Amino acid sequence: MTKIEVTVFINAEQWLIKCVNDMGIDSVSAVHRLTEFKADGGAMYEDTEESTTKRIDLITHVKALRNLCQLVEDRKLFVGGITCAQELTDLCNWDVEVVDAFYQLAYHGEVIYG
User: How far is residue 80's CA from residue 96's CA, in Å, rounded to a whole number?
Assistant: First the structure.
């Protein structure tokens, strides 16, 4: 079997710096961003289910984005009607389900809540 790889985000860091602060959450979401995201310091997040907080840096955000793309492409995560990773490049496709999954991946390294 031949594997073909496609670049989804040409510059994931810049995309995240531009877009993370526009990612809205829902009151039902387990992981919430508490502070504005800054490229040099990340942002503080809270897991409301565990009542814990932590700072998440840019590198961890990039890893979470990579994991989100992979989970969508592998058809292991179905959120927000996203059917392929390329759809994630348009922030308009990031509904609260997608943001929640992304924040969980950044916070926990996996999607642990529904």
Answer: 8
